[in-house]
Each structure stands twice: as C-alpha cells, then as structure tokens.
Amino acid sequence: MITTLTLSPCLDRTVFLSKLDINGVNRAESSRTDAGGKGINVSLALAALGEESRALYLSFEGSEPIKAALESSGVKSGSVRCRGRLRTNLKIFDRSSGRTIEINEQNPDVSGEALAELEKLCIDSARDSEIFVLSGSLPGGVPCDIYKKLALAVKSANPAVKVVLDASGRALKDGLEAEPYLIKPNLGELEDCFGIKLASKAETVTLCHEIIRGFGVGNVIVSLGEKGAVAVGKDGAYSAEAAKVSPKNAQGAGDAMVAGACLAISRGLGLKDALKYGICAAAGAVELEGTAFCRKDRFDGLLRSDIKLEEL
C-alpha cells in the first residue's frame, strides 16, 4: 500500500484565458475546479495509473469535494476534522504564453489536538504501508518539524516502510533528519533550503551527494521543469530530459512525478527507472488541463517512447 498525507488540502480553481491582459478586463474561455493538495494529487495520480493508494488529510469545512474525488477514483482515505474553511487556490492559465499565474490561499490554523489525532492515524496506516508519502505546505499552527516527527513515527511503527518527502523550506530541512528513503524537491526548493544557487546539473548532483552523506537520505530526485530531472542515490546519478509533449498546464506535474517514482519503487525497480517513471507521469499530467493526471495507457506509451536518460 502507498499511503499519502496532505496537511494542507485545497480546491484548485483554474480559469483559462486566450490571452491575459494585465491592465484590462479578462473574460474566461472556461474554468474548472479540482480537488487538490500535494499528497491528494499523488494518490489521484496513482489511481489514474491503476495503482492502489490511501490518502490521509486534514479535513476542513467545504472538504466534501475532496472526499468525493477520492471515492470516485477508488482511493481509500482517512481524515481528521479541523475548524475553519478549506482554502481555494486560483490558477489563471494564459493560453497565448502557456504560463500559469497562481494565487494560493492559506488554510486555517490547526490545533494541537487535531495534530495528535493525525499522528495516531498515520501510525495506524503505516503498519500496512510499503511507501508513505509526506507532501506539501503546512497550515498555520503546524510546527516546521512535523514531517520529521511523523516520518520517525511511521518508521517506528513499520521499520520496513519507505518514507518519501516532498516539501520545502524548514519543513524539508527538518525532515531530512528523519532519513527519508527519497526526497523530491524542485530546483528552487533545493536552492532555498540550503541558501545557495546551483548553476549546473553537476553542482546539483554534488549537493545531492552531500545530502545523502550528511543526512542519511536514501535517494534524491530534483525536478528541473522543462529541463527534466536528475536522480541521485548511493549507487549512482542519472539525468533525464523532459518528455516531448504539448503542455497545457503545469499544475500537479511535481506530484505526478512523485507518483511515478513511487510506482517504480513499489514494483521493486531501481532509481533509474524511478526517474523515468516520474518523468513520464509528469509529462502525461502537463498534457491535460487543470489538476488532472495521466491515464495508464498514455503512461505506458510514454514509457515506450524515447526518453533520454544519461548516467552522470
């Protein structure tokens, strides 16, 4: 079982414009609203690929569409009820440039009682989990070391579980101390976490090796947007170019990459295949409008395509 955790779920409302006029009135061509939040996205992406998963999340007032989306996709779920209303994130997609403007709200503060209940839920779910994904931003009231605490808790409950961490800022830096099996920052998050600028793939790979040696992290996959991704583990490093697709949106691409990597790991495949699976799942997601994910037939076709992977 692959279990995901989302501390800051949301609804993603995407508005599509033919061309954004910053100084004028803009009329939407269309719009859509999708259940969101990074861990929830990972579970929905896995479901689209035909893989079973379980999504744990904090539930706020207005979270019914999230539960409905998970149920309709066949994703098992568990939640802890919190006070306050669920956030809505606005995405404005400019078709003329292919760019997305994102305006993200913040969820309400979460109580200590809710976090304690959530920790118990995570521990219970860890016992039958092969992979446990900790992913996304933190609501107010949640300490920065929450992912470290939860990673240690689920590993204590099930020493065989593989923890995957996809976070940023202090949540990422503190989470490294729990020695996750895999972390998946994007380049900007990695630079921000360590306060440096990475000018090349070689510098990125060097930093990833330092993270592995210094923190005991098993593997690092760094997404590079249009430039693909790099993957570094104790046994080697790989680079992959982005798949050649026609992008319609970038929403959920990083979460799809996590889902693809988790699918490869669950199949007993190595880091090189985890990178390829992640690249293909992300490519299949950006072909779709809104927060939507690659179906299995398209994913299998992308796997068979000429994805350029290089050993570094």
Topology of this protein?
Layout lengths: L1 E5 L3 E8 L12 E7 L1 H11 L4 E9 L2 H9 L3 E10 L2 E7 L4 E5 L8 H15 L4 E5 L10 H12 L4 E5 L2 H7 L6 E2 L3 H8 L6 H15 L3 E5 L5 E5 L2 E5 L12 H14 L4 H16 L9 H9 L4 E3 L1
Helix pairs in contact: 1-8, 3-4, 4-5, 5-6, 8-9, 9-10
State the CATH architecture.
3-Layer(aba) Sandwich
CATH class category name: Alpha Beta
List the helices and strands in order.
Answer: EEEHEHEEEHEHEHEHHEEEHHHE
- What's the CATH topology label? UDP-N-acetylmuramoyl-L-alanine:D-glutamate ligase
Biggest beta sheet summary: 10 strands, mixed
Low-confidence parts, pLDDT < 50 over ≥5 residues?
none
Total strand count, please? 14
CA radius of gyration is 18 Å
| Total separate domains | 1
| Lateral arrangement of strands in the main beta sheet | 5-4-1-8-9-10-11-12-13-14
Shape: globular
Mean pLDDT across all amino acids: 92
Distance between the termini: 32 Å
Helical run tally: 10
CATH superfamily: Ribokinase
Per DSSP, what share of the residues sits in E-state strands of 2 or more residues? 25-35%
Q: How would you classify the helix and strand content by structural class?
A: alpha/beta
DSSP helix fraction: 25-40%
